[in-house]
Write a structure and sequence with these properties.
6-stranded antiparallel beta barrel; 8 strands; globular; two-stranded antiparallel sheet; mainly beta
């Protein structure tokens, strides 16, 4: 089965938005929480209501939504959640681009005190 068909059946609806107003078409992807075995993703942000550890997630998306080429100010919207891309890579099956994975993190609003 083509992974895009699988994502459309079982994935979550998502879209990318940039601060200048650009919005991608809707597509489907998988997002799963990363486990903190090696503690490399544990850091947080001071918010108005206190310290908030940013959650990190694994993103699996369709090959036609190339997140490896997006700028740093692009935000991934999935439901009411917003994420920024930390790292992304393409995965091939032979010569065919099969899907794109990324490490994404939850966007939290920073308080003025932490700036």
């Amino acid at each position: 089965m083509d992974i895009t068909k699988f994502l459309n059946l079982y994935g979550r609806r998502a879209r990318f938005e940039e601060e200048d107003g650009w919005t991608s078409r809707d597509f489907h992807c998988f997002i799963q929480p990363l486990r903190y075995k090696n503690k490399m993703y544990l850091y947080g942000v001071n918010t108005q209501i206190g310290f908030n550890a940013q959650g990190h997630y694994l993103y699996i998306g369709p090959p036609d939504c190339d997140v490896t080429k997006l700028s740093d100010d692009v935000v991934l919207h999935v439901g009411e959640n917003r994420y920024r891309i930390d790292r992304a890579e393409k995965v091939y099956c032979g010569e065919k681009l099969y899907y794109i994975w990324a490490i994404i993190r939850t966007v939290v609003e920073e308080s003025e005190e932490s700036l």
